[in-house]
From TrEMBL:
Domain of life assignment: Bacteria
Residue ranges of the TM segments: 28-47
Domain Uncharacterized protein YyaB-like PH positions: 43-116
Name this protein carries in UniProt: Uncharacterized protein YyaB-like PH domain-containing protein
Keywords: Membrane, Transmembrane, Transmembrane helix
Cross-referenced InterPro entries: PH_YyaB-like
Any one GO BP annotation for this protein: bacteriocin immunity
Taxonomic source organism: Bacillus thermotolerans
Length: 126
């Protein structure tokens, strides 16, 4: 989250004041800021019927809950549709993985287990 705002303040806002008033000099940083804000305010996860719906700015993804093999907690800075480093990593289908960061991870996992009790919960040794 800190890195996100740092990028906005370092790479988008200063060029608006340093560059001359050309349209390209304003348009590129401004459009980058719009996309970053879109991602920030439109990231969310919902469970509907037997599908997890993931929104990450302009990106939308659906995962069938019955294809989920395992879930484990993860803490990594890699880019995923998550705004936090504290994530849950979902392994689904054949060798597909995605990490998300719902606000209440325990409740989210509990809801998934209600829909698919065959999901393996892997424990981390941290």
């Amino acid at each position: 989250m800190f890195i996100f705002w740092l990028l906005i303040f370092l790479f988008i806002i200063p060029p608006l004041f340093i560059m001359d008033a050309s349209w390209i000099g304003v348009l590129i940083p401004f459009s980058g800021a719009i996309v970053m804000l879109w991602i920030w305010f439109n990231t969310g996860y919902t469970i509907e019927e037997s599908v997890i719906k993931i929104n990450y700015g302009p990106i939308k993804k659906s995962i069938d809950i019955h294809e989920i093999n395992s879930i484990r907690s993860a803490r990594n800075p890699f880019i995923d549709p998550a705004l936090s480093m504290d994530k849950i990593e979902i392994n689904y289908a054949a060798f597909k993985t995605i990490a998300i960061s719902p606000k209440n991870q325990e409740e989210f996992v509990h809801q998934l287990l209600r829909k698919n009790p065959h999901i393996r919960i892997e424990r981390n040794n941290r």
